[in-house]
Amino acid sequence: MLNFLFVGIGAAFGGMTRYGISVWMKNKWKTNFPFATFIINLSGSFFSWLACFK
């Protein structure tokens, strides 16, 4: 049951971080390309790779 709590906390933190970076980048670069989603997914893939192979 504790695993569900940790997953929920991680999902909440990830969602808030994704939203914050999205708002920040939308104000910084006036473009329609979803740079925030691209960067978040890229960094998430990198950290997942680190967690698996470290």
TrEMBL record:
One of its GO terms (biological process) is monoatomic ion transmembrane transport. The chain crosses the membrane at residues 32-53. It catalyses: fluoride(in) = fluoride(out). It is a multi-pass membrane protein. Its main location: membrane. Pfam families: CRCB. GO terms for cellular component: plasma membrane. The keyword Mitochondrion does not apply. Keywords: Cell membrane, Ion channel, Ion transport, Membrane, Transmembrane, Transmembrane helix, Transport. Belongs to the fluoride channel Fluc/FEX (TC 1.A.43) family. Fluoride-specific ion channel. Important for reducing fluoride concentration in the cell, thus reducing its toxicity. This is Fluoride-specific ion channel. It comes from Listeria fleischmannii FSL S10-1203.
